[in-house]
Design goal:
about 475 residues, binds 6-O-phosphono-beta-D-galactopyranose, TIM Barrel, 9-stranded parallel sheet, single chain
């Protein structure tokens, strides 16, 4: 029976806006996430077009990886990381997205980070855009709705590809690109929120703008992949999809059809384009029914064909159910919820825990595309209690991860080609959906709290030592 590859990429995942801090240091500009206040599971974080005096913006300091990167990467190395997923903050390189040339101080920071990784034998896995669009592009152009963003993005890609060509091999174009298919994706993902102020996950739904914006992201992603393939053949280029696995609530054919429809537009639509290189057949009817018409330019369809990705990556936290019944009990999730599954338990934030769903999902994706896969986010956001000596007994986290790794093993035995696994928030960081610090994912505890206080001291949780063993035994001992 097949087991994890010898060169399996064990590691952890982060995003610049959620952990770097130093939001305006060394010439960095404001990204969309820098304009988001903190919130909680019950009170939503807000986006404010102008920074408010006396309001806390959690990305501004976050956990200050900017000044702690050497210490943090050493801790990752101590766990045995083979890879480290991080994003480059676009606004460190092009503060407004519109400058002619890159900001040298921003480029120099990631040189330091990648050199530190290399020192420890850790391969960086870089997300080019992880909910970090320059806010100036939103103010001026309504984000990705304007085609100008394609050029701005390409200029950014050219700069980072040229600079890091000998330091980075694995790249992902857009984090959770399919979040743009959901209304909640407009703030962080498509940026189609010009002038909007209010609950970050509650921006008005403008599907025409969102899907036009998505089209521009597809073209930008394909152009970046093509550029890499032509100029930097050593690069491996991936997509990144928020995989929200859905099951029909019942065997009522109405539920089955509804599930299939939602799976198509939420989970498959973007990756069908990024992996297969063309808009899928089922999109036409969806667009017609929603009154969406995508404006394309000559050459767009060709570029989508020419810029398909080498490997498929996704985040997986939970599964949801789908029904056509009106009064079904609801559940939460990252950017989207669904209907409760009576067979599953939920996290403190209401995300349904479904390890077997990961095996199912890996098989579904691999069956559709047959290219190497990587799980680049997975994990349990939980309240942790730190003891005097800095340690945390996070058996619940170990339990969650253990069960998911066991199911990845099953999928590999099923024949799925799995390249690696980077659990989310390998070090505690700011939550994307709520802006909280209290929702912790890490193997490493960071002394930082929701009111902005904390010493930023790092300490090892119980899961740190557990994950170290998992990596040392290449997943044999979980
Ligand atoms: C994904 C995002 C991440 C991350 C994760 C956990 O959707 O790509 O940025 O934050 O979800 O979500 P949260 O931080 O809201 O718990």
């Amino acid at each position: 029976m097949k087991t994890f590859r010898k060169d399996f990429l064990w590691g952890g995942a982060t995003a610049a806006n959620q952990f770097e801090g130093a939001w305006d240091v060394d010439g960095k500009g404001a990204s969309v996430s820098d304009m988001c206040t903190n919130g909680s599971h019950t009170s939503p974080k807000r986006i404010t077009p102008v920074l408010e005096e006396g309001t806390l913006y959690p990305s501004h300091e976050a956990i200050d990886f900017y000044h702690h990167y050497a210490e943090d990467i050493a801790l990752f190395a101590e766990m045995g990381f083979k890879t480290f997923r991080l994003s480059i903050a676009w606004t460190r390189i092009f503060p407004t997205g519109l400058e002619d040339g890159p900001n040298e101080a921003g480029l120099a920071f990631y040189d330091r980070v990648f050199d530190e990784c290399k020192k420890h034998g850790i391969e960086p896995l870089v997300t080019i855009s992880h909910y970090e669009m320059p806010y100036a592009l939103i103010e001026k152009y309504n984000g990705w709705e304007d085609r100008i963003c394609i050029d701005a993005f390409l200029k950014y890609c050219e700069a980072i590809f040229a600079r890091y060509k000998d330091k980075v091999k694995y790249w992902l174009t857009f984090n959770e690109i399919n979040s743009g298919t959901m209304a909640m994706g407009s703030v962080l993902s498509t940026g189609t929120i010009k002038g909007y102020s209010g609950a970050a996950m509650g921006a008005p739904d403008k599907p025409q703008e969102r899907f036009q914006a998505l089209h521009h992201q597809f073209v930008a992603s394909a152009k970046a992949v093509k550029l890499a393939h032509e100029k930097y053949p050593q690069f491996k280029m991936g997509n990144m999809c928020l995989f929200a696995t859905m099951y029909p609530s019942t065997c009522n054919p109405d539920d089955i059809i509804e599930t299939q429809k939602q799976m198509q537009m939420m989970n498959w639509f973007c990756s069908d384009i990024q992996v297969r290189g063309a808009y899928p057949y089922y999109a036409d009817r969806f667009f017609e029914e929603k009154g969406i018409s995508i404006k394309m330019e000559d050459g767009d369809r060709e570029i989508l064909k020419e810029g398909t990705v080498d490997f498929y990556t996704f985040s997986y936290y939970m599964s949801n159910c789908v029904t056509t019944k009106k009064d079904a009990a609801e559940t939460s999730g990252n950017l989207m919820g669904g209907v409760k599954n009576p067979y599953l338990k939920s996290s403190d934030w209401g995300w349904q825990i479904d390890p077997k769903g990961l095996r199912y999902t890996l098989n579904e994706i691999y069956g559709r595309y047959q290219i190497p896969l990587m799980v680049v986010e997975n994990g349990l956001g939980a309240f942790d209690e730190k003891k005097e000596d800095g340690s945390v007994d996070d058996d619940y986290r170990i339990d969650y991860l253990r069960q998911h790794i066991a199911q990845m093993k099953e999928a590999v035995a099923d024949g799925v080609d799995l390249m690696g696994y980077t659990p989310w928030g390998c070090i505690d960081l700011v939550s994307a959906s709520t802006g909280e610090m209290a929702k912790r994912y890490g193997f490493i505890y960071v002394d930082k709290y929701d009111d902005g206080t904390g010493t930023l001291a790092r300490s090892r949780k119980k899961s740190f030592y557990w994950y170290q063993k998992v990596i040392r035994t290449n997943g044999e001992e979980i």
